[in-house]
């Protein structure tokens, strides 16, 4: 961000001083031009350069498309200077003011709009990131659910294999004894599925039921050996136990499959690829709007510096030029990069959005191809582009930063000059004026009345010190006469009190 949003205390004080000191010129339009102090070594939220964590939020593709589409409309309508002027003219009231100051105000307003649009674009990026995160979580949840199904199927297969082995061994033991009585061999379940185990178990239970019949022993080659029932009972118990394990494993598969289908249906409500494409669109728009804001900053500063005391000579690349000219020289670089970035944005639109129906290969499980693979490729491309963008802006950013640094030096110089002027003025105000002679104090018996003064004028009255002197004189005279009058008139007069000492 190259637009200073907080005026430094030094500059504020300098401007305040400048307004009270004659003979010192100040810019006609007081505008912040000091590079803003940013957090995190130059990374800040305002221009989307700061890393920022987001929560997964289901910002729909339609909402993101509308928001980024509005930003695209602004970018397309402000790509060229004549487009900006046309908009200013459309907004102007009757009686257009063609002055430089009015032009400055128009461009300043457009710069503020660019800053607002950049803020919207940054929000679009964060909203798209949250949307991608949401859709990716849904896809990951579906992926994890289907992987769980795979795991449960593997557990079912293991349970079936274990059941087949355990039941087969018991069947062999029963058949060894059954052959002694001429009995038919029992069969082990194959495969050892729930259905097959249940069918085999019925044959085992039928054989056990037959052994309990009255006529079970039919002939020499058709009877129940004494050693037959014990292994048969063991077979039935083992089969039931293995059937329970296989049933539980089968139920786990069915439960996992139902959960995976629910997760997949949730993932079908969002498309991570479309959202990622909209994220790339929003990110590209941010980089374009950074240039837009910088361009307006330069344009307003060029107008502001006209006949300003701040338009001083500076040295760039060994050449002495004015600060205003230095700003003007940056514009071609900004315009070139604006064109390049706009073309990059157009390519993003073409490659990621054109022809998309918003419903690509929906997530259909843990496949190596399809949406999961496409997203990984897109994510890699996005990160690669982010690395490239970190360096592609160096040309115009540093070209502008060079001038901004010079402007900052000039601003500090002016502030120092104004502070020195203020200090000098204060010293002049506090210095006492010199006098050649001290006027003589009139004698006590001299009358200093002004005949033209109003007798009621309080300024003609004696001061309190003079009044005190008169009183003291009268009292002294009375004190001197009292003893004499007492002797002449043969009177006993009271003793006068002793006067207190006055503090002067």
Which strand-content bin applies to the residues? under 5%
Helical segment tally?
A: 11
Percent of residues in helices comes to: 55-70%
**Tertiary shape:** rod-shaped
Biggest sheet layout: 2 strands, antiparallel
Spatially, the strands of the biggest sheet line up as 1-2
Structural class: mainly alpha
Low-confidence stretches: 1-40, 360-366, 453-461, 477-504
Determine the N-to-C terminus distance.
Answer: 72 Å
Average pLDDT works out at 76
Radius of gyration: 51 Å
The sequence of SSEs as H and E is HHHHHHHEEHHHH
User: How many domains would you count in the coordinates?
Assistant: 3
Number of beta-strand segments: 2
Provide an overview of this structure:
It contains 11 helices and 2 strands; from the N terminus they run H-H-H-H-H-H-H-E-E-H-H-H-H. Helix content is 64%, strand content 2%. A hairpin with a 2-residue loop joins strand 1 (313-316) and strand 2 (319-322). Helix 4 runs antiparallel to helix 6 and helix 5 (194-210) packs antiparallel against helix 6. It is rod-shaped and about 140 Å long. It is an all-alpha fold and 504 residues long. It has helices at residues 9-18, 61-77, 81-91, 100-178, 194-210, 229-267, 272-304, 323-353, 371-392, 394-430, 464-488, and strands at 313-316, 319-322. It folds into 3 domains: 46-139 and 271-404, no CATH class; 149-267, no CATH class; 462-504, no CATH class. The two termini are 72 Å apart. A two-stranded antiparallel sheet has the order 1-2. Residues 1-40, 360-366, 453-461 and 477-504 have low confidence and may be disordered.
